[in-house]
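ok so I'm stuck.
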Amino acid sequence: MTSLKIQLEPRSIATCPNPALPTDLLHAFEHGVLQHQAEVYEAAKNHDIVLDLAPTGTGKTKAGLSVIHHNRDRNAIYIAPTNALIEQQTVAAENFVKAAELPHLVKAASAKHVREWPSDRVGNRPGEKIYNLLREPATIFPECGGCPLLLVTNPDIFYYAAFFQYGSKDRSNIASEFYSSFSTIIFDEFHLYDAKQLVSLLFYLALSKVFGYFEHGRKIVLLTATPEPACEAALTLLAKKGTRIKSVDDQSVGNHLIPSQTSVNLEIRKYVDKESVIAEIAAEVSDRLKQQSDQYGAVILDSKDTLNRVSDQLRHRGYEHYVGRITGDTPKHQRYTAAQKQVILATSTVDVGFNFERDISPDRQNLDWLIFSARDRFSFWQRIGRVGRVLGKPTTDQPSNAIAYLPELAWEQGITDLSRHDGRTELGQILEKIECLKRPFLDIYWRSEAFLEIAKPLLELETQLEGLAQVKLVADLYRVLQGILGGKREWDFYKKRMRILYGAENIAKLPVDKVRKDWKFIKGGKSCLMSFLRACCPEDYEDIQSGRESFDSITNLLNQDLELLGNFCSYAKILHTSYAPLFRFRDSLFENLKVQDPHKFLLDESGEVILDPIHLLRFYEFASDSDQIVAVGRAEQPYSLVFTLRVCSLEEFENSYLCRLFAFENCSIKRTIGGTVRPTALIKEIEQQLIPGVVVKEHSKNRWAIIKLCKQGLECYPIHVSGFDNPNPKEYLFFPSLAGILAIAAAGVSLQSPDNEEFWVA
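replied:
not stuck anymore, here's the structure
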């Protein structure tokens, strides 16, 4: 059986006929107040953290914004999950603030917005601009006139600010403002955060508790229709520490119900292979355009290449003017044009905040049908919630249709136990049990890495508070986070590790001569040198530890022995590069590229698109020179990428560098198809001096684990390693960047770092 059919019953949501909201706030709810909206506002009076769990498309944004009224004269921040949503939610916030007569100045703050802010009163540095905006908004925008600020930003900026990731001149100032400036914080659709991103959220919640911000009226609102169980468990632990937390659900029972979603005739199909899915979807869309020409639909897929190939097939069938694409690459004006088409083809960029509204809106649901893929149950419920929305619509009784493609493993793990009659509740219970639909790596990440990540802001805080009574709060905050994330090592261990990494980062930035001259004054330099001696010069390290040699006598050698100094600088660069993926909000192996798309392979109109080089190399033919890259064709079949690595000794490599986090020199990429190398000049342009990751040797005992990791979405590539002692390359598997750490951690193997410290902390 490759498909199942089930009818999902219609949904309703409770209204609140007599909401206990202030009169000015009621003006912002022009179509009436829903029960969950009223309860969120009421709960915020006496709670520190409020979760709104109402379904998608039922007004959670307004519920969150209403909480600002409790701190109406103080700054607030709204964290939207995508840049596209920043634009939309900024407009929504401006309208809400105006209707509710709140005094706030609303400002959007993506990286692009910050660059465009005026620089005549402050410098050009993004961190400097954001700091001055929070400290005194009129510094950047004179029209502010002393009113409080409502900043609409994304999780990236929030992360870099709260985790001291801005430049050295701004990081302390901006972190201090992000910790103390906001009295209302709204996290929208936080269930979309991955494990790394959730760590930053939980860090901020714990800091708000330990540093007493809740005692001064801070309110945090979490908006999600599908809460992550691990995050719920973390909030339970915060509640045990005295944080007042309240969850508000959709209240779909009661006497005052209105329809929110139609019934949905759902077909669940097995995602067998890419080519079959492309052909099926193209045929389905074509049939619906022919037979249901008055209906509107959408296709939402995880793979951008799969979506674009569906678009190609529909264009070849003559439906170009009926279909529009919306992906993360699509410019703003093209998104608007695409949204007017009868069928919208989209990636996950429409999962949040995009309501499929058209200039001429139908009386019924905006989407009559939906075809989508889902890798986990969170994206499944997020996407099925997009079809059949009828809240506020005059016609609410026309059923909708949906086709969902789930991983093939779901059929082995119990999806066929689904009855055709029990609807949403039973479907939810079945999906909960299917292992392949769980979000991978959340617990693994927390156990294996999170404490090094949170150690950076903790160490910065401790440095700033040194000599003050509040410095003890840093250790208190660590213990709270330790309870949430489950680590076993004490704060002193991570503090020492972070000092080493600070030293490695600072030394890696400097030329060798500068290091020799000034290394004693480099922050973390001494810690990094001791780490180098311990890993590479164990006898010297033991002499210092035992007192047989002084630290100064060893370090004087750096001024005299250029080879030793060079080895030390190389060690610092490798250590810094190996750990760098831990301290980036979004991990990618190479910087994105600007690509011209004159033939509309990626866009519905000719133009420029920002693209991941890996995606470009695998799926497109292109021409490149020093000025530009132009997409000239879609690859007939995806290219394979193979890494190559040249080492001094293959025997030493196998003994010392397998299953070890490292940054590899002399590592390059080849683009191949059918085993034949297809050279491209672009590869040389994007290759970097050091590439971080983990190399593993595949064998019969670990093959099952590697297959499982690949099915869970971790990228890995063949890597051919050759040495001067063995010029014939041997093949291994390379998990680059953050994927390497997650792969080894998920497989349960103790991972070694470049300085021989074990990284596995569970």
